[in-house]
Amino acid sequence: MNVDVAIIGGGVSGLATAWELDAKGYSTVVLERQVRTGGHAFSENISGFMMEHGPSTINAFDPLAQNVSTRLGILSDQAYLGDGVKQRYLVDNGMLKAIPIHPFGFMTANYMSLPGRLRMMMEPFVPRGKSGTEETIQDYITRRFGSEFCERIIDPLVGGLYAGRASELSMPSVFPKMLALEEKYGSVAKGMLSKFFKGGNMPSKRLFSWNGGIGTLSRALEAHVKNVQTGVTVRSIRKTKTGYQVDCGDRGPIQAKSVVIATQPHVASGLLSTVDVEGAEAAHSISTPPLAVVFLGYKREQVSHPLDGLGFLAAEMENIGLTGAQFSSTMFPGRAPSGCVSITAYVGGARHPELARLPEQDLLQLAQKRLGSLLGIQGEPLVARVRHWHLGLPQYQLGHSTIVQTLEDTSQRNPGLFLTGNYFKGPSVAACLGKAQNTSSSVAEFLKSSTDQQDYFSGKQACN
Ligand SMILES: Cc1cc2nc3c(=O)[nH]c(=O)nc-3n(C[C@H](O)[C@H](O)[C@H](O)COP(=O)(O)OP(=O)(O)OC[C@H]3O[C@@H](n4cnc5c(N)ncnc54)[C@H](O)[C@@H]3O)c2cc1C
C-alpha cells in the first residue's frame, strides 16, 4: 500500500491528525494495534451502567474541543455536569470533607488549619521567584502558598488529574497558566480572582462530555477518517528513498511519504530507535506509570453518602491507596439505571505504580474496602469492572520542555517524520486535539514543500 501519510496509533491524537489531513485532501491510513480505536478514550455500557475506561470530562474552556465537537456533528449530544454536583470532597483523616465549589471554598471549609489558611492568604505579598529557574510544583506552591496548601490541596489535585507527584512534576510544564497569572498580576491569587470576577471560573460550567460518553468523540472521529485499520501492530519504520516503509508484520509493509507516530511515548521510542536515536532516547525518558480504573455500580440504597459532587481526591499522606474517585452517575445524568449509582476509583500513577499492577480481584477488594468506609456502602456491587492501563499518563517532570524540544526537532533530523500525542502540550484530550491540529499542519506543509520541490526539479529536467 502507498499513502501520503501513515499514522501509527488510533487514539484521539492519531484519529484527529488523520481527520485534519483527510480534509486537506491527502491520502492517509491510521494503523491501530487494538481491535477498536480511541485508545484511552473508551466508554462501555455494562448492564445499563456507563463506564469510562479513561477520560470522563473535557475542559470546555479550551474552545478547540467545542469547535471539534461542532465540526464532527456531535455538539447537540454534549452533556454537562448534572445538578447534583454541588461540592468537591477531599479525604481528611479517613473521612470525606466537603469543599464548596467556588474559589473561596478552601478558605471557608474547615479543611486546612487556621495558620495554613493565613499563610495561603499571604500569597499576594510573596515576591516573584527567580526568572529562568524551573521549580517543581511542590517547591513553587510551597514558596507562594505555604506547605499545608501544597500537601493538602495541590498534592491531591496533581495525583488525581495528572497521576503524578507535586514533588516531581515541573511547574512551568504542568501549570503554565498559573505562572502566567503571577507574571501578569504579580500574584496567582490576584490573577485568579480577577479572572473569576470577569468570567466565572466554576467547574460546573467548564466540564462536559457527551450523552454516549467520551467514546462518542472517538467514534465520531473514526467515522470521519477515511482509512482506519485496526488490529495492526506497527513493528518498525525505516527510511527509504521516497519516504518511509512501515513494517506491519503479517499485514505487509506500507510505503508512506510521511509518518506520524501517535502512540504512547515508550512505543514511540521503540519505533524511533531505527531512525532517530536522539528522539528515541528523549521519548524513552518520559515516565508513564501504570494506572488502574475500578468501576462499581450499586443500588442507591446501598450507599449512604449523598454523592452530591464530582467525587473526591486524596492526598498522598492519607495513604488510602486511591488517588480519588468520581461519583460518575452524579456527574452526568443517565449513566446508571434508575435507582442505581456508579462510582469510579483511580489507583496507581507515580504515587503507587505497584498498586496499579495488582490483579483485578485485589484492586476490586482495595476499592470496595476504601469506598465502603468513606461512602458508607453496604453489600456487594451490582457491577464491577477493572481496567489496567499499563502505560498511564506521561509525567511532565523537571526538564520536560527540553525533552519536548528534542522530540519536536525529530522532523528536522528526519524530514517527513512527526510525533504527536499527550506528552507535548498536556495530557488532556483537548490538548491532544490541539497538538493533532498543529501536527497535521506541519505534515501538510512538509508534503506541500516536497511536492513543490519535485515539480521544480521535474520542470528543470523538462527544460534541459
Ligand atoms: C484513567 C485515565 C483518565 C483520564 N481522564 C481524563 C479526563 O477526564 N479528561 C481528559 O481530558 N483527559 C483524561 N485522560 C487523558 C487522556 O485520556 C489521554 O491523554 C488521551 O486520550 C491520549 O490520547 P492519545 O491518542 O494521545 O493516546 P492513546 O489514547 O494512548 O492512544 C495511542 C494508541 O496507539 C496505539 N498503539 C500503541 N502501539 C501501537 C503500535 N505499535 N502500532 C499501532 N498502534 C499502536 C494504542 O493501542 C492506542 O490506541 C485520562 C487518561 C486516563 C488513562
Walk me through what this model shows.
- Helix content is 40%, strand content 21%.
- The chain is α/β, with parallel strands linked by helices.
- Strands 1, 2, 10, 11, 12, 13 and 19 form a seven-stranded mixed beta sheet that branches. A seven-stranded mixed beta sheet has the order 8-7-15-16-17-14-18.
- The protein is globular.
- The two termini are 34 Å apart.
- Residues 460-464 have low confidence and may be disordered.
- Flavin-adenine dinucleotide binds at residues 8-14, 31-34, 39-41, 54-58, 233-234, 262-264, 267, 291, 293, 389, 392-393, 421-422, 427-430, 432.
What attributes does this structure have?
3 domains; 7-stranded mixed β-sheet; FAD/NAD(P)-binding domain; protoporphyrinogen ix oxidase, domain 3; about 20% strand; binds flavin-adenine dinucleotide; about 475 residues; alpha/beta; Polyamine Oxidase, Chain A, domain 2
